[in-house]
Amino acid sequence: MATILCYGDSLTWGRIPNGGRYPKHLRWPTILNGLLGNQHQVINFGLPGRTTLWNDPFLEGRNGLAYLQASLETFGPVDVLVLMLGTNDLKRYFHVGAFEAAKGVEKLIEKSRIADYHDFPSPTLVVIAPPNILSPTGAMAESFDGAVEKSQHFHQHYQDIAVHNQCLFLNAAGILQPSEADGVHLDTKANEQLAHAVYSLIKDVIKN
C-alpha cells in the first residue's frame, strides 16, 4: 500500500468558492484515492491560507516549511508527496511573486529530502504549479490585488524548479481554472480534473 500526502492550501483542503468546505467525496485528494484504489491511502493535508514559507501576520501556523517535516513524520513513511502551494504567497502583503513562491517550493523539496531519525525513504515528489488566479471577488479582491498578473508566471518558474530538482511536474493552469465565483478556488469540475491529472502522473510510480 502506498501513502500519498497532498500538502497544500485551501485548494487542496476543499474550499468552496465564496465560503464553506466541500464534502469529502468532492475534494480532489478523495477523488484521487478512488482512482488509485482503496489499497492506497491519499491524505488530504491542505490548510486554508498556507504559504510556502511565509509567516502570515493574520493567520497562525500557515508557514508550510515550518510544518512539513512534522507532517512527513506523522504520516510517514510517505511514498509520494504532492506539493501545491504558492497561491497565498501572492497576497499583496507578502510583496512577492511567482518566482519567490517557486523558490519557496524548492525549500520544501529540500526539506522533504533531509534524512530523519526514522530512516524513512525520501518520497517521490510531485510539484503542481497552482492555477492562474482570475479576477478575485468579494473579500479576496483586496488581499489578492495584483496577483492575477503574478500568477501567470507560476508555470514557468515551477517547471524550472521541478526539472532542476528531478520532480514530477503538473501545470494546473493547463487543465483547469478557478471558479469565476471568486476567482481563486476550485469548483467541483476542477476538483475532478485535478484528481485525474495527478492520477495520470503518479499511477506508474505507485506500487500495487
Automatic annotation (TrEMBL):
Domain SGNH hydrolase-type esterase: 6-187
Pfam families: Lipase_GDSL_2
Gene3D superfamilies: SGNH hydrolase (3.40.50.1110)
GO molecular function, one term: hydrolase activity, acting on ester bonds
Source species, domain of life: Bacteria
Official protein name in the record: Arylesterase
